[in-house]
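In the current project phase, work has continued on tokenised descriptions of protein folds. One protein thus recorded appears below exactly as we store it.

——
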Amino acid sequence: MKSYDAYLFDLDGTLVDTAPDLGGALNTSLQNAGLPGVTEAQARLWIGHGARFSLTQALDHHGVTLDPVAVDALLDNFLNHYADHVAELSSPYAGVIDTLDSLRGSGKKLAVVTNKPTRFTMPLLSALSLNGYFQSVVCGDTAAQPKPAPDPILLCLKQLGVAASCSLMVGDSITDVDAAKAAKLDVACYRNGYNHGIDVATLEPTLVFDRMNEILPTTI
């Protein structure tokens, strides 16, 4: 791998495996409403496009139709439960901490660019002791538009004071790849993240990796 001045990381499915807590919150909210629950494996397939998408996919999976008011109430329960359990079972993927330590130790600028709302992002990073690594954290409600629009990445680059040509986006899905390409960044894609069953190699990122330390430049 070449060396970059800045490394911008997606959060869910890239730095942290959040499916256990997201799936648990979804499952609990459904069951509390007297509806069928879901497995963690099912929840993993639906993560990445927001909580409402995960909820509607679960309802569709069970053939349940609710009016918009009921869906909104169920979504509120889902989000409130998740807020209380945002880092109960979630954990960084193997190699993440060592990679962040190596990059920080070599003077690289590090950031998070996620579509996760600030309400959940900051407590999650803090609970997992990841917040101290990043000089910029751009959330889903920070920029004018979320990924796959380039806005969050461009805002992050401005905050870091680095050029797109000197930066790498690290993600796990078509959302990250499309946003990076729109912002004219190289992009590395985690093969086993939340990619909705898509082979990320078909997205033609700069790199597909199986473990985070594969993004490290050869000079470190």
User: Anything to note?
Assistant: The helical segments are 19-32, 40-46, 51-61, 68-84, 96-105, 118-127, 151-160, 174-182. The beta strands are 6-9, 16-17, 91-92, 109-113, 136-138, 167-171, 186-190, 207-209. The mean pLDDT is 94.
